[in-house]
Amino acid sequence: MPELPEVETTVRGLAPFLEGQRLTAVTTFRPDLRRPFPADLAQRLTGATVTGLSRRAKYGVISTDRDDHMIFHLGMSGRWRTEGGEAGKHDHLLLETAGHRLFLHDPRRFGSVDLVNGDPMTLFPAFVTLGPEPLSEAFDAAYLARALAGRRAPIKAMLLDQTLVAGLGNIYVCEALNMARIAPTKPAADVSRAKLAALVPAVKEVLIAAIAAGGSTLRDFLSPEGDLGYFAKDWRVYGREGEACECGGTIARIVQSGRSTFYCPKCQR
Q: Would you state the pLDDT for residue 218?
């Protein structure tokens, strides 16, 4: 599933095609993805001018001069195609401007599109309960210590809780925990303040590096320009079971809550 860096890469890739542009046509090629498209999507967006693009957690937001905000989630296999042409089998939404045709491509149809009029941060239900953005100043060691106090769930599970911190996913949590030398199975409340002080910059460093590399491509993700995400070549532990950690230990794989966790038992304690 595309995580924060992949969605940030997508939003940045769409901006040159959409920002400041008038939407001349909006077309859906099926009634739904994971849930139905908004019934009035085309009516409300056609003729509107895109005033900005942004990201919240794993969602992208396309804002217009009508104070309408189209919120998209890429699901497991979604991406935007900017090369134009005609709609293909797995292209389900088309945004047209005077010079471009942009298709939302989603073979598995686990993505979603919503439309909110007004401030989406307070009006879109999925945004209301989200924790702070991990790249924001609000996400610091003091906040993390307060949020984890008394929590006996594993630290990895807590970092994947979107109400605690927004946008972190499996790959980047594994990477950050290795960088901070924290065992993914450790009860969250037992992680020391010193370790939390190392974890916060590790999270930020991993995300910034991943965004700079265009994200990580597993199966389906491509940027709007059709480029692969190249951060996968820099993974410290993810997908590297049996290989050597930089500390000299051997990377292991376990399953937590149905998800693969990669870590080094030697240096992550």
A: 43
If DSSP states are collapsed to H, E and C, what string results for 138-184? CCCHHHHHHHHCCCCCEHHHHHCCCCCCCCCCHHHHHHHHHHHCCCC
**CA proximity to 268, closest of 244, 249, 240:** 249
Under-70 pLDDT residues of the chain: 1, 215-232
pTM: 0.90
- Catalytic residue numbers read 2-3, 58, 259
Q: Are 182 and 265 in contact (CB under 8 A)?
A: no
For residue range 154-209, what is the model confidence (pLDDT) as tens digits? 999 999 999 999 999 999 999 999 999 999 999 999 999 999 999 999 999 999 99
The CA distance from 187 to 103, in Å, is: 43
15: left (phi over 0), alpha (psi -120 to 50) or beta: alpha
- The torsion angles phi and psi of 212, rounded to 5 degrees, stand at -60, -30
Which residues on adjacent β-strands are paired with residue 53? Answer: 62
Radius of gyration of the chain from Cα atoms?
Answer: 20
3-state secondary structure (DSSP) of residue 249 = coil
Note the pLDDT of residue 19. Answer: 97
Contacts of 136 (CB under 8 A, 6+ apart): none
> Coil, strand or helix: which one is 197?
helix
Distance of CA 248 to the CA centre of its chain: 31
